């Protein structure tokens, strides 16, 4: 039987409550589809920081370098550790050092969830955002001068390499080609950002010529955000730079109702390093400890991990089980129900078996 080695980092807050439900569902679907997941549970978190002065051991990345994937709950305990220390010491460190340059977020209106957009029903909103996750606007190139004086300046440069741009485009085209509508939209702003964004457009067109079967279009980011709200049914796959992708990947899931169910993947598509799968939400200290966190974002992220490991049918079975439970309940309080985290995890596991 095929066995996968998974680095499990539950992290902080509700990460610790939703992770066991993710594992519960993964175990059920794995045994049903004839493979096994071997979890390596790592205590890396803000609690770890308080004890040891770092979010993970010095050789932490080395320890999980050869695992098949990383499954992560949430990071952050702002009452004890400043957010920039906890996020950069664990989550962002893994994304950067494992070159997880493609950040993938599905945007899908699920049954049983009310969209904040009027008159939208299941099937109307079903697209994927592909965010460049390694360069672009989020660079550390720049600096400050004359701090604290009237002459103070701050400069931060965007970095768009041909290597970095082409590989995210290519990933997006490959993904689009596998979907029914085969329609890829590029987020740009080449009317205002006059050097890097025309370069982005140029590379989009150059890579597009290798994919004649994929229909393409592009919008400036300002009108694109408006289209997400007004015509979400138009989109199939949307590719954006680090900053534009970041904004779109909060706006998109917001249009489908709740971040508590939204999943994400941080991929190293060449598989030179493990990829990481995590819910979009954070550690939710405001509800931690009450066993009311919605585990669906965690469970859906697990489905994305199975898909990445090549078990597409198993991944689809998990998504179907999520849909069934969203429709029939039980539901956690964020969706208007009274069920606990465990109730929902168990119901989804049962819907599979
Ligand atoms: P958050 O996502 O943790 O919470 C925002 C709101 O949504 C809260 O009211 C929370 O109760 C609710 N919520 C989130 N997930 C939920 C779930 N599964 N079920 C029910 N309700 C849920 O964002 P916030 O409050 O801004 O950040 C809290 C901590 O999490 C901070 O330390 C922040 O840095 C960290 N964070 C970590 C992320 C990650 O690990 N990827 C992502 C976002 C924030
Ligand atoms: Mg964000």
From TrEMBL:
Which molecular-function annotations from GO does this UniProt entry contain? D-malate dehydrogenase (decarboxylating) (NAD+) activity; magnesium ion binding; NAD binding
Q: Does the keyword Lipid metabolism apply?
A: no
Q: Where is the Isopropylmalate dehydrogenase-like domain?
A: 5-348
EC class, as a word, reads oxidoreductase
Q: Which InterPro entries match?
A: ICDH/IPMDH, IsoCit/isopropylmalate_DH_CS, IsoPropMal-DH-like_dom, TTC_DH
User: Which E.C. number(s) belong to this protein?
Assistant: 1.1.1.83
**For this protein, what reaction is catalysed?**
(R)-malate + NAD(+) = pyruvate + CO2 + NADH
Which cofactors, by name? Answer: Mn(2+); Mg(2+)
Query: Could you tell me the superkingdom of the organism this chain comes from?
Result: Bacteria
Q: Which SUPFAM superfamilies does this one have?
A: Isocitrate/Isopropylmalate dehydrogenase-like
Keywords from the UniProt entry: Manganese, Metal-binding, NAD, Oxidoreductase
Name the family the entry cites: Belongs to the isocitrate and isopropylmalate dehydrogenases family.
Which protein is depicted?
D-malate dehydrogenase (decarboxylating)
Identify the species of origin. Answer: Rugosibacter aromaticivorans
Organismal lineage = Bacteria, Pseudomonadati, Pseudomonadota, Betaproteobacteria, Nitrosomonadales
């Amino acid at each position: 039987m095929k066995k996968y080695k998974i680095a499990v980092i539950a992290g902080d807050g509700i990460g610790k409550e939703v992770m066991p439900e993710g594992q519960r569902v993964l175990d059920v679907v794995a045994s049903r589809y004839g493979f096994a997941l071997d979890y390596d549970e790592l205590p890396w978190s803000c609690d770890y920081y308080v004890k040891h002065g770092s979010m993970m051991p010095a050789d932490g990345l080395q320890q999980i370098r050869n695992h098949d994937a990383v499954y992560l709950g949430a990071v952050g305990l702002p009452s004890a550790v400043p957010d920039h220390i906890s996020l950069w010491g664990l989550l962002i460190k893994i994304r950067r050092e494992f070159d997880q340059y493609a950040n993938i977020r599905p945007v899908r209106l699920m049954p049983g969830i009310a969209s904040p957009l009027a008159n939208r029903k299941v099937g109307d909103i079903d697209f994927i955002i592909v965010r460049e996750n390694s360069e672009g606007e989020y660079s550390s190139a720049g600096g400050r001068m004359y701090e604290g004086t009237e002459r103070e300046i701050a400069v931060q440069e965007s970095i768009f390499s041909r290597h970095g741009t082409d590989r995210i485009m290519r990933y997006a085209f490959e993904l689009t080609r596998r979907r029914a509508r085969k329609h890829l939209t590029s987020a740009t702003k080449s009317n205002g950002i006059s050097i890097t964004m025309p370069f982005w457009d140029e590379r989009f067109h150059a890579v597009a010529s290798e994919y004649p079967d994929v229909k393409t279009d592009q919008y400036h980011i300002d009108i694109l955000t408006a289209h997400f709200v007004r015509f979400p049914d138009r989109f199939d796959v949307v590719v954006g730079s680090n900053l534009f992708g970041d904004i779109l990947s909060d706006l998109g899931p917001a249009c489908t109702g709740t971040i508590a169910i939204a999943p994400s993947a941080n991929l190293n598509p060449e598989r030179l390093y493990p990829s990481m799968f995590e819910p979009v939400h954070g550690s939710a200290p405001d509800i931690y400890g009450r066993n009311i966190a919605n585990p669906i974002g965690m469970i859906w992220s697990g489905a994305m991990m199975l898909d990445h490991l090549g078990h597409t049918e198993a991944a689809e079975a998990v998504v179907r089980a999520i849909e069934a439970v969203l429709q029939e309940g039980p539901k956690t309080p964020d969706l208007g129900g009274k069920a606990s985290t465990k109730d929902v995890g168990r119901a989804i596991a049962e819907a599979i078996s």
